[in-house]
Queue: 2 jobs
Job 1
Amino acid sequence: MTAVRPAAVAGTFYPADPSVLRQALAGHLASAPAAAAGDRPPKLIVVPHAGYVYSGDVAALAYAPLARWRGRITRVVLLGPVHRVPVRGLAAPTVDAFETPLGRVPLDRAALTALDDLRQVVRSDLAHAHEHSLEVQLPFLQTVLGDGFTLVPLAVGDASPAQVAEVLERLWGGDETLVVISSDFSHYLSYDAAKARDAATVQRVLQFATDLEAHEACGAVPLNGALHAARRHGLVPRLLGLRNSADATGLVRPDRSRVVGYGAIAFDRGPGTVPEGDEAALGRSLVGSARHTIASALGLAPAAAPKLPDHPALRAPGASFVTLHGADGQLRGCVGRLEAVRALGEDVRANALAAAFDDRRFAPLRAVEWAGLQVEVSVLGRSEPIAVRSEAEALAALRPGVDGVILEWRSARATFLPQVWQQLPDAGAFIGALKRKAGLAADFWAADLRLSRYRVRSYADHDLALG
């Protein structure tokens, strides 16, 4: 027999009658404005989980555009907070399907089994039995995606952002997998106070904050972990809409003294982001090519290049940095370009040689160092200026762990890759060190000083089983 988790909040959070439910969903989805067509579906969406009469129109802003990806999105990884049963970690169900008035949604049992070795994942049907944060998403998903998708539902309790992100990495997949994070925002503030707090929270989400608290978003725990993973994958957030319960249409007398905030946010793959299935192949090509180039220059490799995966991105213009670390983990060289002026593959090979032999901070690399050499290739995205009038504004605008930063003042220029945040997590120390790298005093500031930021996709040989 098929074990099924039956609908628990049909008739309270949304209509229990299938025809009435379909009519309500159609109305919510029709209220969403037409979305600009992209060539790939969003990877992650954040949606509210209140009763449809309050949050349905907001949720529809994220769900309506998914209809064009019916058949392409075939798995949904759904995370939401627990409201009734305490959970240490993330709770996975043992049943085979979840049911709503629109039918059953089969669970991806293989995906759930693949999480069994993770200590933060527990099995608990009790955590799911009456949890509404996940259930309310299902009728929307059934309507826009049809019956051609499987579900990986996880009820999230006490877990760190890293623990949630580790689970998401295991399930990340490609375009076939959509990650849905269920979360409302502020709870029971006055209308004006809620608008102010929710606007501030959304800005933190758009800047990939991973320390959101429950008073900002009731789904803060899964959301923090999702933002951790989204930042690592270079996703680009889009705010689709932000409202609260008093803004809901159809309410006769909305209560403006105690409202709940709702937002819809989509996270897309950034311009130039490599399709997920090709990411590892591109990484192997770039890092393998850099290693072979250096080894050949040291007289340690045959003249013929090794057979590496081909990828169209290698022939397109690209900007990269090649970073070398010795066996002791210390920096051994780092050279790159900020502008894409040649093919990416050529740029990586040239920067690999320069990092090994022409970085003025270090003596040229020797053959005896080859055995322990660690190679990392960073592919840079397009830079964008940071419009600030003071250093305080600059420090507030930076996204630690995300932004590579370019500092320019007259003839002085320097950059730090995002990886430098690992050594300098404080924005003030980061900018101070960057100014010193440019030959300026750490406390220097001028009205015509310019800052720009960029993102990188980073590939290391220890991550790709190379070398």
Job 2
Amino acid sequence: MKKDIKSIIESILLVAEKPVSVKELSTICSSMVSDVQKSLSELIKEYQDRGIKIIKKGNFYSLVTDPKNSDAIAKFLNEELRHDLSVAALETLSIITYKQPVTRMDIEDVRGVSSDHLIRNLMIRGLIQEVGRKEAPGRPILYGTTMEFLQYFGLSSEKEIPDFKLPENTLMEIKDSDNNNDENQ
């Protein structure tokens, strides 16, 4: 049963999004507080020379990474997030970057498709935020980039964002496309 307590504690601490109290662990493990505390002490010793640790503050415990590995973890997470941005997310982020403050409808006018999901994901990542409301019917939300956006792309200020310029032949292609669409209607 003791091994089960340790296993349950490990599992709970792994999935917990906040520190867990000894009392909560005791209730979940259906064990006495003293047994849970003993198991926690043993786990702390077992993790002593590993990449993860169990830390304690008061009667609360958390499973965390070893602080010695913080540089490697930061590098991994930054690279992981960078690779997770889809082409559509980068496209949406570009529109927001160059047109901010911008509404969801403005973004969708440029992209031609719904962008609700992409905007939500960019907000969750902390790359964009609500910056106000447009003075228009319905008072739509205006979006802009954040400090995390600058950090994510390794910029020290918005002044480092490159100017947006379409190649000259692209402008001609857009005009030709618009003329062809008008003639076909």
